[in-house]
């Protein structure tokens, strides 16, 4: 097959591209330039897709012996990821830009261009597995190494995208093995640290970035009764479940710590309360998709597991499509769920689908 390998400049995508070449595919490497602002994605940043990363990817492509290109996706990235991130925070939600990047950039814009240019598949360094059932339907499954499993951030993929996705690292038992392979191949990326933080906020100061791009102002921190218990320097700088950094001037009656329960950008308020008030008994989202075949009867409740963060443990649950929403009821309350997060639904190792969380139902009502 003729395949396009997305090469971020990290060790995982380097080895994935090399394995695709070893498997006999005709491979072309591509690195995505996601910013035109030289001070944003710069050499030495803690994100990914920097100038340094592009150079590393080119060196690896030369060693593998494949053509290599840099494609400018900065305009699309700003519109579909950065602007979405800002809009979500302005609405008081907690977005996941990595989910949006996989959904709208790597497996929408990039895959669309690849197919238009005659490529058969897109190769990435994600730790996940695509299996084919007896009827020929493609399914997304967890990677062999659960510690590195990245199927959560791929939960946004649909059937058409899975049909053209290749993940050569899915069966690899450990990241150490990938690094050892890269070392043996002479890749400059072999011992390169993993990227982390949000790539377009390379210094890791999300609150400062939001202050510049969203615009923030002082407001009140209130308890669940609406009484003012402190002040804040911008509601968008807080997330559900946060404990540290709260400027509280009125102690809780029971003396226990308080946590952010809700962010209200419309009134510029941050609502705080006890930890148990973070327990969620139900979550739902109208923006849901299926990764491959949908359940045969989604309007009938079915057993599953739900995961709400990339590295969280899956929780047994029951899901159902009701009134245009994917409604998920965990077997035991999940702590600290925020609107805007993504709930990924699993059946065994298979990723069944996902929903962007629009609303939650607390396990303990505010009046209790």
Helix content: 10-25%
Q: Uncertain regions: pLDDT < 50 for 5+ in a row?
A: 38-47
Query: What share of residues are in beta strands?
Result: 25-35%
Secondary-structure element order, N to C = EHEHEHHEEEHEHHEEEEEEEEEEEEE
Mean pLDDT: 90
Sheet with the most strands? 11 strands, antiparallel
Total of domains: 3
- Tell me the radius of gyration: 22 Å
Classified in CATH, the superfamily of the largest domain is HUPs
Quickly name the level 1 CATH class of the largest domain: Alpha Beta
Distance between the termini: 61 Å
Q: Determine the CATH topology of the largest domain.
A: Rossmann fold
Per DSSP E runs of 2 or more residues, the count of β-strands stands at 20
Instruction: List the total number of helices.
Output: 7
Choose one word for the global shape.
Answer: globular
**Class derived from helix and strand content:** alpha+beta
Name given to the CATH architecture of the largest domain: 3-Layer(aba) Sandwich
GO biological process, one term: tRNA wobble position uridine thiolation
GO molecular function, one term: tRNA binding
Family: Belongs to the MnmA/TRMU family.
Subcellular location: Cytoplasm
Q: What would you say this structure looks like, in words?
A:
By secondary structure, the protein is α+β, with helices and mostly antiparallel strands. The chain has 3 domains: 2-185, HUPs (Rossmann fold), CATH 3.40.50; 216-273, Roll (SH3 type barrels), CATH 2.30.30; 278-362, Elongation Factor Tu (Ef-tu), domain 3 (Beta Barrel), CATH 2.40.30.10. It is built from 7 helices and 20 strands. The strands form 3 sheets. Strands 5, 6, 12, 13, 14, 15, 16, 17, 18, 19 and 20 form an 11-stranded antiparallel β-sheet that branches. It is globular. Belongs to the MnmA/TRMU family. Residues 209-273 form the tRNA-specific 2-thiouridylase MnmA-like central domain. Keywords: ATP-binding, Cytoplasm, Disulfide bond, Nucleotide-binding, RNA-binding, Transferase, tRNA processing, tRNA-binding.
């Amino acid at each position: 097959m003729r395949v396009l390998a997305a090469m971020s400049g990290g060790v995982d995508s380097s080895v994935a591209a090399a394995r695709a070449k070893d498997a006999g595919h005709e491979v072309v490497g591509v690195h995505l330039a996601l910013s035109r602002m030289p001070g944003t994605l710069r050499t030495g940043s803690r994100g990914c897709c920097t100038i340094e990363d592009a150079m590393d990817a080119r060196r690896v492509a030369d060693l593998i012996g494949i053509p290599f290109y840099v494609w400018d996706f900065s305009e699309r990235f700003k519109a579909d990821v950065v602007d979405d991130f800002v809009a979500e925070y302005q609405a008081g939600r907690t977005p996941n830009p990595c989910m949006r990047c996989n959904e709208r950039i790597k497996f929408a814009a990039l895959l669309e261009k690849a197919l238009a240019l005659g490529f058969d598949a897109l190769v990435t360094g994600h730790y996940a597995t695509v299996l084919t059932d007896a009827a020929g339907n493609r399914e997304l499954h967890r990677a062999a190494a659960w510690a590195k499993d990245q199927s959560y951030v791929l939960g946004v993929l649909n059937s058409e995208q899975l049909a053209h996705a290749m993940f050569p690292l899915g069966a690899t038992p450990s990241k150490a093995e990938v690094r050892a392979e890269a070392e043996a191949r002479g890749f400059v990326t072999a011992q390169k640290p993993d990227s982390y933080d949000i790539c377009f906020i390379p210094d890791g100061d999300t609150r400062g970035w939001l202050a510049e791009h969203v615009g923030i102002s002082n407001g009140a921190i209130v308890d669940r009764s609406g009484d003012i218990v402190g002040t804040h320097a911008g509601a968008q700088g807080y997330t559900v479940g946060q404990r540290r950094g709260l400027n509280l001037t009125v102690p809780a009656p029971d003396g226990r710590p308080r946590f952010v329960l809700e962010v209200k950008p419309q009134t510029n308020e941050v609502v705080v309360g006890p930890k148990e008030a973070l327990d969620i008994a139900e979550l739902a989202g109208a923006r849901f998709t299926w990764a491959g075949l949908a359940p045969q009867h989604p309007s009938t409740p079915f057993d599953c597991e739900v995961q709400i963060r990339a590295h969280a443990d899956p929780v047994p649950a029951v899901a159902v499509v009701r009134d245009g929403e994917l409604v998920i009821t965990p077997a035991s309350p999940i702590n600290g769920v925020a609107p805007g997060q993504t709930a990924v639904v699993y059946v065994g190792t298979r990723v069944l689908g996902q929903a962007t969380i629009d609303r939650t139902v607390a396990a303990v009502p505010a009046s209790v």
